[in-house]
Request: fold
Amino acid sequence: MAYWLMKSEPDVYGIDDLAAEPDQTDHWDGVRNYQVRNMMRDRMQPGDLAFFYHSNTKVPGIAGIMEIVSTGYPDHTAWDPESNYYDPKSDPDNPRWYMVDVRFQRRLERLIPLSELKAEPALSEMALVKKGNRLSVMPVREAEWTAILEMEHADGRG
DNA sequence: GCCAACGTTGGC
DNA sequence: GCCAACGTTGGC
Reply:
C-alpha cells in the first residue's frame, strides 16, 4: 500500500467535482508527462491513498483524500480529437499515456495550504515543496502522510 | 546526441 | 498577469 499526492486545478477539476461524480469515482486522465505516466502505469495499485492537491489557484494546498481503485490502463482521451488531451502520436496498439481510477474518500477539515506544508520540517524532502518541481503526481512517504494528517487539526500557525 | 527554441506548469 | 523552471521537440 502506497501513498501519493495528485495535483489538479480546482477551476478545471477540483475535489468537489470528484465528490459529485456517480459513485464518487472518476478516471484521472490527461497526464502527459512520462515520469507521471510511469508511476500510474507501473506503481499505482488499488487500495493506495492519495492527497487531492489544488494547484494554480488563490490558495494552493491539499484539499482532501481519495483512493486509487484501479491499476493503470490506457488513457483513451489521447485518441479523441475532440479532447483537450488529444495526442495523435499515441498509438492504440502501443498506448503512450495511462490513467488510473480514483474514488473520493473525504475532504480535509480544512485546506492545508502550500505555505504551511513548506514550513513543516517533516516535509522538507517532499518534491512538492522544492523549487521548480513540476510533477503533477508524486509519491508520499508514510511519515509525510502522517505528518500532513496531523496538520489537519493544527491551527495553521504552527 | 547535442542543445536552442518553444510550450507548459504553477507559485506568487 | 508575470515569469522562473522545467520537459519536449526538432534541426543539425
Residues 33-35, 131-134 of chain A lie near DNA strand C (CB under 10 Å from a C1'). Helices of chain A lie at 10-13, 15-19, 34-42, 114-119, 142-151. Chain A has one domain: 3-151. Chain A has a mean pLDDT of 94.
